[in-house]
Write a structure and sequence with these properties.
Blueprint lengths: L4 E4 L3 H10 L5 E4 L4 H7 L4 E5 L1 E2 L2 E2 H11 L4 E7 L4 H10 L4 E5 L3 H31 L2 H5 L4 H16 L3 E8 L4 E8 L3 H4 L9 H9 L3 E4 L19 E9 L2 E10 L8 H25 L4 H8 L5 H9 L4 H4 L2 E13 L1 H7 L2 H21 L3 E6 L2 E6 L8 H24 L9 E14 L10 E3 L1 H12 L5 E4 H8 L5 E10 L8 E11 L2 E2 L7
Parallel strand pairs: 1-2, 1-3, 3-6, 6-7, 16-18
Antiparallel strand pairs: 4-5, 8-9, 8-12, 10-11, 11-12, 13-15, 13-16, 14-15, 16-17, 18-20, 19-20, 20-21
Length: 531
């Protein structure tokens, strides 16, 4: 176990005393000559060091240790006989957070250390967020790759920049041979790459693949690992193996290791590698699926990732040229929806909680859009863009889009209520919708091989701006959508006229309305609260 607190003292009885006082923490004690090595190998949060050491002073030693760990919090332990008036300024100048006097007052020591640990944890969390958030933007780079080697090279480039590791490899599972093979690597001899074949369950990579759980192997702790019997390379000082999983399907294993130096892996590295490997795995899966378009069964699997199963079935049974059909100007209805206060969510919520909520959020959207025979065009951070009437004709695409929005709104409210029980912050989240209709380009942009089509046009931009303007779960629509709704004879919706709206990036006023809910016998079957 890595220590929370490091005590540097040549007095063994002091180590016992401090360990008892700080019994709620993991305290590691070392002599002054061991301190530099321990600080390199153990990411301690707080250092306690006595002023009177053999051959040096606590202040001088702490100065050196801060070169290795600039952000570490330190307390100087002094005796009552020491000249506090001189030591205090010198200690503060060296970066100490305070002094601890001997004989020690246990309650005072516990309070100081407790506050320091809270400050260290907060600083680490802020640093982690600053490091992690930019990594989410790398997904576009991965998804823009046109082949698996491009994706894997991009992945290794990013990891190399992040870790400066000595050895990197991505092992992908070969379904025909039933083994893991190296698909991309850095720092591994070419003659070894062709020879390596690992079955699931064999060696470390095979075990990680089979168990679907990452593993950290640091030299100091690896003998205590469940993988200890599989360690064959004693020259490795630290390593991580991470499963690459997408949509509950494991594609392979990412391996990162150091054979020299003092770098050790921690749980924060697992989180970073998780983000990168998941994004790369998503890109690989998309490419693999696109490359299998020629086969009918694989084509259906591909289409069902982008459209409702019913839509995919109709397309497969038709003689439509899918590539040409997805590259034309066509009239369709666009639905755009995004979450309000997403920035606050990122700042307030731990990333694993944020990830779980967004997964449920996108699941609700996808299932509902597919249920109403629409197409999910793309996810954009905290937003979803869907298209109706694009791949298959609908009797009234605008009406279907409004029905979808009303259903999503109801389900999102239920989702919000469920998450409010976990964290009161979810009281503040909101959802806005924008629905437009008109001509837009639908098709491949930049690659004729990509079936993952996108929509481009003014109506798409207007839908996004309307969603940004909508609050309190409101659904804003344009005149073109309202006219389509009026053609629905068997059912009506309640609409509030909003007049002309000035939208950012749109150079003319846009007439808009707000859909309140279904109308039935002159009353509201469903109603959206006013902002």
């Amino acid at each position: 176990m890595l220590a929370d607190i490091l005590l540097i003292s040549d007095q063994r009885e002091l180590c016992q005393q401090v360990s008892e006082i700080l019994g709620d923490y993991d305290v590691d004690c070392c002599m002054s000559y061991e301190a530099a090595r321990v600080c390199v190998h153990q990411p301690v949060r707080v250092i306690l060091v006595t002023e009177n050491l053999k051959g040096t002073s606590g202040i001088e030693l702490f100065d050196k240790l801060r070169d290795t760990r600039p952000g570490v919090i330190g307390f100087l332990i002094v005796d009552q006989s020491d000249d506090i008036t001189q030591l205090c300024p010198a200690a503060m100048e060296s970066g100490f957070s305070g002094l601890i006097s001997c004989p020690m007052n246990p309650s005072v020591v516990r309070e100081k250390v407790s506050r320091a640990m809270e400050a260290a944890a907060l600083r680490e969390e802020n640093s982690r967020l600053r490091a992690l958030l930019p990594l989410y933007g790398l997904g576009e780079n991965f998804l823009s790759s046109t082949s698996p080697p491009d994706v894997l090279e991009s992945l290794l480039d990013v990891i190399s920049d992040q870790t400066a590791a000595d050895s990197l490899s991505v092992m992908l599972y070969d379904e025909e041979e039933g083994v893991l093979r190296i698909a991309a690597s850095r720092g591994i001899p070419e003659e070894m790459i062709a020879k390596i074949r690992i079955k699931p369950g064999d060696k470390i990579a095979g075990r990680v693949f089979e168990e679907r759980k990452p593993v950290i192997l640091n030299q100091e702790t690896q003998n205590d690992s469940r993988f200890a019997d599989l360690l064959k390379r004693p020259e490795i000082v630290s390593a991580v193996s991470f499963p690459m999983i997408v949509r509950d399907r494991i594609l392979g294993v990412l391996n990162v290791s150091y054979t020299d130096g003092d770098i050790r892996f921690a749980d924060s590295d697992i989180e970073i590698l998780g983000i990168l490997s998941t994004q790369a795995a998503l890109a690989l899966e998309n490419i693999r699926t696109r490359e299998s378009m020629a086969q009918e069964a694989r084509l259906q699997a591909l289409l069902e990732q982008y459209v409702a199963p019913e839509v995919a079935k109709v397309l497969l049974e038709s003689d439509a040229n899918l590539i040409r059909g997805l590259g034309a100007v066509k009239e369709a209805t666009v639905l755009f929806a995004d979450i309000r206060n997403f920035t606050g969510m990122v700042q307030h919520l731990p990333l694993p909680v944020l990830r779980d909520f967004l997964n449920e959020f996108f699941q609700v959207f996808t299932e509902t859009i597919f249920e109403y025979r629409g197409t999910v065009d793309k996810f954009m951070g905290d937003a979803v863009l869907a298209v109706f009437g694009a791949l298959i004709e609908l009797d009234n695409a605008s009406w279907t889009a409004v029905e979808t929005a009303l259903a999503i709104r109801e389900r999102f409210v239920a989702l919000k209520q469920a998450w409010q029980k976990r964290d009161k912050f979810f009281d503040s989240i909101d959802l806005g919708f924008g629905i437009t209709r008109g001509e837009m380009f639908m098709g491949n942009v930049g690659s004729a091989r990509r079936l993952d089509y996108t929509v481009i046009g003014t109506e798409v931009n207007i839908a996004q701006r309307l969603a940004s303007a909508a609050t309190s779960f409101r659904i804003y629509i344009t005149d073109a959508v309202r006219k389509d709704l009026a053609r629905k004879a068997d059912r009506q919706v309640l609409i509030e006229d909003l007049g002309s709206m000035t939208l950012k990036g749109v150079h003319y006023p846009v007439s808009a309305c707000c859909v309140l809910g279904f109308a039935q016998d002159g009353g509201a079957e469903k109603f959206c609260p006013a902002p």
